[in-house]
Design a protein that fits this description.
The protein is α/β, with parallel strands linked by helices. The protein is about 35% helix and about 30% strand. Helix 3 packs across helix 4.
Length: about 375
Amino acid sequence: MRKKVVVLGAGMVGRAMAIDLSKQHDVHSVDRDESALALLSNHPNLSTAAADLADAAAVTDVIAEADIVVGAVPGFMGFKTLETVIKAGKNIVDISFFSEDPFELDALAKSKGVIAVMDAGVAPGMSNLILGAYQNEMDVTDFTCYVGGLPKERTWPYEYKAPFSPIDVIAEYTRPSRIVEKSEIVEKVALSEPELIDFPGVGTLEAFNTDGLRSLIHTMKIPNMKEKTLRYPGHIELMRILRETGFFGEQKLQIGDQSVRPLDLTTSLLFPKWKLGEEEEEFTIMNILIEGLDGGKQFKHKYELLDRYDPSTKTSSMARTTGYTCTAVTQLILDGQYDRKGISPPEFVGEASGCLDTVFNYLEARGVIYKKSSQAD
């Protein structure tokens, strides 16, 4: 049965999700950028509207008839948007990856009878879903996630393009990285503890600490957990130079008769160089390692993802791997397979019977393939 779905945000990932959901439902895509909405004009079962999504009244108006809402706004708008949708009594699946604590909205969501799944992307997202499922099946002792999205062509000087909001990328380089060691939450400097790792089909990448565990720190009682971001070798040093020199600073500097935040200057210079072309080839790579005891035996489980830009649909890999995970979870809710009221990080969805397999099947049908291997010690 076709449902009414409203997608808030028509960026690269938001557009991919709107197109995917329109194959089964009537979708309404909303953004203030009319040029982004124009890219959706030729798709059946898909309507668009221009609106300021920073305006709670505007959001409430555009979602009034929705059966479910998908949130794809930038991180700095995410928490407020989620709160607005919950207050309107609408179920939502969100990928804004905001910094605020989502559980502050848990009581509100439960009082409204709302299902609200946040961080439903690739990582966080699929990494959480997989861990949530294994937490039910075995005594997990170690969880490690290596993940990154990179352009196929390495272009000097940064050899990087941002497949999602660039301001959220910079936040990864400045926010302290929280990991779990021996059941204790430990803060480490972002970009720290570099590793060089060889990946088949890609080559050597460097991995470094970022604050990617998010909700897992509080919901999963696992002794050792960490997430590391992947980039081409040399990127860490460039970002550390910018950070330590103060280019990511948020305190205004007086320069002549102008008062300027270094971050605003930096983003103005960086973002054009980081902009991923609409048809530029890129890839998403992720390795998930889960170790622990199962039936008294030590097991190691590994999931590997290497997904590339789809030239036939002109869809970026990051849009595919992030967006289709989100639309898969959206479909779980519409089908009644996931119905937990309140705030749900993806690991809660993974814990629910059959949900992970359903998501895997949904992704595989769209060419997003996770390869699993297991080893008993």
